[in-house]
Amino acid sequence: MANAATLDIKSLSKQYAVKDKVLPVLEDVSLTITPGEFVSIVGSSGCGKSTLLRLIVGLEEDYQGHILLNGARISGTSLQRGIVFQEHRLFPWLTVEKNIGLGLLNSDIPAAEKKTLIQQHIDLVGLGGFEKAYPYQLSGGMSQRVAIARALVNRPEILLLDEPFGALDALTRSHLQQELLDIWQKEGITMILVTHDVEEAVYLGDRVVIMEPRPGRIRKIVDIDLPHPRDRNSFAFSQLRENVLREFGDDSAEPIAVVPEHERPSGIDLWRFSW
Hints:
This protein is α/β, with parallel strands linked by helices. Helix content is 28%, strand content 24%. Helix 6 (198-204) crosses helix 7.
């Protein structure tokens, strides 16, 4: 099991220089995420959600404030922090097992142990039997499973997910949400999800962080005090979803997504057909 991390974000601000002007992207963001917590971040375009993830993963370092992982300031990328993007970003000339193995490229783990870890994570995401398959032979949902396995194979302390299911159809997205929860519970890892989908945020998160744009800052944090598995059609779930939606006003640059009721799964185990 991975060692879950504590993430402390303190008075974080970020600006970009655009045509000799300063464009503030994040302003005074403070948030503590405890070990093993699943936090969803929602907000309209322009609120800095993806920029925040890039700073946490270490892809950018020019910022004001502090980002601390287990008390140490984050500097550059690290195997401690994995990330999954909306596009799976698999190498088309590599098989499933070799794409996952890229997550161990900079690891000093012995070859035999790497092989074991790769197989364990193929099984973890339900792709046993597809080890030798190439990306063109996989569906979108299967490709995202490979991307998740690649991000987890080196046992990071925190997993960052940037709209990982945004390009998938509603049924596939719903089943992968449940599988992500299963992985989170098995691995005990700290997870941070960025999404436009309020229902997804409420279904997955222990807390939902609502951000507002220009510059990006935290408007409100909503605790999701519902046990797993969560019933999307229950009154308590609907009430929490509506509470989050009410926080979005006219400043939204684009609509916040909610899966229409007629597109929601019936509860029948159809995930195999989502491939």
